[in-house]
Amino acid sequence: MSNINRRVLIKSSIAAAIAGTSLSRAAFADADPILLGVSGPLTGPNAQYGTQWKQGFDLALDEIMAAGGINGRKLAYTFEDSQSDPRQSVAIAQKFVSDPRIVLELGDFSSPASMAASPIYQRGGLVQFGFTNSHPDFTKGGDYMWSTSVSQADEQPLLARYAVKRLGLKRLAVLHLNTDWGRTSRDYFNNAAKEYGAEIVVTEGYIAEERDFRSTLVRVRDANPDGLVLISYYSDGALIARQARQVGLKQVICAASSVYSPKFLELGGDAVEDVHVGTRYFPEDPRPEVQNFIAGFKKKYNGQEPDAFNAYAYDAMNMAAAVIRIGGTDRKAIRDAFAKVKDVPSVIFGRATFNVATRRINGAMNAELVVRKGQFTLWDGKPT
Q: How would you write the pLDDT of the chain (384 residues) with one tens digit per residue?
């Protein structure tokens, strides 16, 4: 062999080795990933929750990929914007069910948007993992509906106990989102509060787009309650708290866990001082699952503090990975795998295992909080 041929061969071998290395690295990133479909709000009144979901998803995916992915394969998701509108969630469900690449669906944000699409997922044999769907009827839509969200049938009695038994409030006004979720939550709260001995002196619903609550709050003020209960999201809850103070409502305010977010403090300012909140997630919890999540989140997002919806999404992606490790990429096997996962590390639950009968997880943490000096803190039992 000539020197020229040897040099050509050596160069070719080196080039092939370099190319092989590049391909092996790229294979993990660029080969067909295991694909999840996400239906949720990226625009519209609930757009902030879609943004928070993506932050939680992406942090979990970083950790999943650093640990080798799913049996050596990449896990990824495609996010379709539903605006949390039932009409759009139905169209997205039809798209996901007909796409064989989608092995599991996550969402939608609100229970009404999810439940409108549930029959399509059930007929199509694609798991609908409604990880923020607390409506008690969500998982009754079929055996392809699973949720890591605490049902309102469990959560609202905890809020009622906090308001009535712990804070001693006996005459309550309840303001709630006039959605299926809000009305269902209201009913569970009101029933539990009455069982604890409280009187519901006024109940008012409002639409998600409403921005002026003052006439409603004047009626609440004139009913002379000793406590105001908000079944709200953080943006409308903060606005109601501001306007309540403006109309002279000085009574104690209690709010559902759906307001728990740094944004509630930011938007509410001084008006949310002394507001009481029950929540499933609290960053001062010393459990390693919580502290590792917070540290990772701050590192990835330049010191930003995570909130509950970041945690829900982070937990959901880790649960999806755990299920797919068992069930592979077959849709029916993935459904069956939800019943088989055990003690999955979780920010919200500690160690998460599904109750197969309800297709939900039992045992979420419950922290009784109050806003003091502009921060959520554990309530110390002292009067507001």
A: 444 344 433 344 434 333 333 333 344 545 789 999 999 999 998 999 999 999 999 999 999 999 999 989 999 999 999 999 999 999 999 999 999 999 999 999 999 999 999 999 999 999 999 999 999 999 999 999 999 998 999 899 999 999 999 999 999 999 999 999 999 999 999 999 999 999 999 999 999 889 999 999 999 999 999 999 999 999 999 999 999 999 999 999 999 999 998 899 999 999 999 999 999 889 998 899 999 999 999 999 999 999 999 999 999 999 999 999 999 999 999 999 999 999 999 999 989 999 999 999 977 777 899 999 999 999 998 876
Alpha-carbon dihedral sign for residues 19, 22, 24, 26: negative
As given in the structure block, the two tokens for residue 160 are 């009622």
Tell me: do 183 and 315 sit in the same domain: no
Q: For residues 247 and 217, what is the distance between their CA atoms, to the nearest angstrom? A: 7
C-alpha span between 36 and 96 (Å, rounded): 9
* CATH code of 372's domain: 3.40.50.2300
- Kindly report whether the peptide bond that precedes residue 108 is cis, defined as omega within 30 degrees of 0: yes
**27 within domain boundaries:** no
Whole-model pTM?
A: 0.79
Domain assignment of residue 322, yes or no? yes
One domain, residues 139 and 62: yes
Please name the residues in contact with 145: beta carbons below 8 A apart, sequence gap of 6 or more.
118, 121, 122, 127, 128, 130, 138, 139, 359
d(CA 323, CA 14): 41
Residue 152, token pair as written in the block: 């309102």
Counts for the chain of helices (H) and strands (E), in that order = 12, 16
Length of the chain: 384
Is 122 inside any structural domain?
Answer: yes
Q: Answer whether 189's CB lies under 8 Å from 161's CB.
A: no
